[in-house]
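A reminder from the course coordinator: this example appears on the midterm review sheet, so study it carefully.

Given structure:
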């Protein structure tokens, strides 16, 4: 696939698996943040409890940022490998006495970044809205005491991490590949393994018949 600047990605099998796994990690962190915010929103906590909640939110935010950095490293690596505009497929003959070489790990040239589950975007949007709503609720109420500094810091860091996550996922949305492909067939009939000449029957000639011809 191409990133937002039109640069190409080239993913190995391992990188594709890692990207899929990071989608799961992000949803797990989002779930932890959602449970923590709901607990705060439903309760009148003590200053100590708010401080503890703020520390947990900072931990979740750090986890999200860490996963996003790991994804960015994968994309940078894939982008550097993906500076390929032409892929050549070469057909090689193998005689019946030779064996084909073992298959290599498949690379995913021009494939899309594994898209998150559609529910991931919906959950993320609701989570961001909920986090921002908590901040607005407390900042706009003259009857509530200000949040402890630790909780305010945790809520701010979490919101920033969630916004960065949404921006990252949108910026790596699928784009059509632009890689050209070319197939090459060797001009001779030699085996690509032992290099001996192979006898390839002419499809325009009839197949030889067994038995003897009468005189």
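Designed residues:
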């Amino acid at each position: 696939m191409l990133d937002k600047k039109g640069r190409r990605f080239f993913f190995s099998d391992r990188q594709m698996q890692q990207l899929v796994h990071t989608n799961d990690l992000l949803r797990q962190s989002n779930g932890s943040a959602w449970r923590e915010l709901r607990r705060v929103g439903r309760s009148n906590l003590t200053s100590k409890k708010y401080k503890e909640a703020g520390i947990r939110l900072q931990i979740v935010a750090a986890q999200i940022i860490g996963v996003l950095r790991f994804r960015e490293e994968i994309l940078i690596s894939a982008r550097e490998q993906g500076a390929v505009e032409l892929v050549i497929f070469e057909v090689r003959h193998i005689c019946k006495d030779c064996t084909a070489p073992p298959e290599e790990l498949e690379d995913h040239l021009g494939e899309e970044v594994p898209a998150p589950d559609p529910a991931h975007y919906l959950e993320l949007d609701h989570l961001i809205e909920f986090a921002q709503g908590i901040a607005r609720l407390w900042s706009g109420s003259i009857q509530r005491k200000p949040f402890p500094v630790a909780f305010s810091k945790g809520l701010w860091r979490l919101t920033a991490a969630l916004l960065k996550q949404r921006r990252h996922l949108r910026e790596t949305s699928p784009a059509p590949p632009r890689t050209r492909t070319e197939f090459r067939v060797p001009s001779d009939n030699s085996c690509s393994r032992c290099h001996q000449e192979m006898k390839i029957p002419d499809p325009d000639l009839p197949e030889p018949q067994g038995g003897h011809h009468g005189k």
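Helices lie at 13-41, 47-81, 118-139, 149-171. The first helix runs from residue 13 to 41.
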